[in-house]
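Run log // design_07
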């Protein structure tokens, strides 16, 4: 009986090791694959450990982007910011929004009526007893905020309520 247990334990270890090895290879391929088109670049996932994200981001950026936090309203750098340019993910610099889609929704956070196609992903968020749609960076899965259907009716009707700390602004040249 003891020998059977040892054989089963060894088989289980080899099986797990093999699966983990495949996952490591897959992760490595995702992060090192070279692409030539913009579409391919946006679809590549950036995979980092929590320790790597903590070393890369400020504590506030980490709390919002990785732990799905929210900055206090009317405190963010980009709430009343209306220069021409592009807004990118603060974690991975994935282009997310253009300045011509930004509007003042008077909610205390930067608001956009649409994201750059393919730059974001969406997840059902049922936290805090509400049903909302979470918006995440398609490249690094960083939490950006939420999207609501109360935006400008003359455009998309959507309001991407975004944390300033989750984005960075790149001015037009």
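design_07 sequence
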């Amino acid at each position: 009986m003891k020998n059977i247990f040892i054989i089963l334990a060894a088989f289980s270890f080899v099986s797990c090791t093999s699966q983990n090895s495949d996952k490591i290879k897959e992760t490595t391929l995702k992060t090192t694959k070279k692409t030539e088109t913009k579409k391919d670049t946006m679809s590549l996932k950036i995979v980092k450990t929590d320790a790597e994200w903590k070393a890369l981001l400020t504590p506030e950026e980490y709390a919002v982007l990785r732990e799905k936090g929210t900055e206090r309203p009317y405190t963010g750098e980009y709430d009343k910011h209306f220069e021409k340019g592009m807004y990118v993910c603060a974690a991975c610099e994935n282009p997310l929004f253009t300045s011509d889609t930004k509007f003042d929704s008077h909610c205390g956070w930067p608001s956009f009526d649409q994201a750059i196609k393919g730059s974001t992903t969406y997840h059902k968020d049922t936290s805090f007893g509400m049903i909302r749609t979470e918006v995440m960076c398609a490249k690094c899965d960083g939490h950006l905020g939420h999207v609501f259907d109360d935006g400008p009716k003359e455009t998309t009707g959507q309001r991407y309520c975004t944390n300033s700390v989750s984005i960075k602004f790149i001015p037009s040249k």
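The first strand starts at residue 85 and ends at 89.
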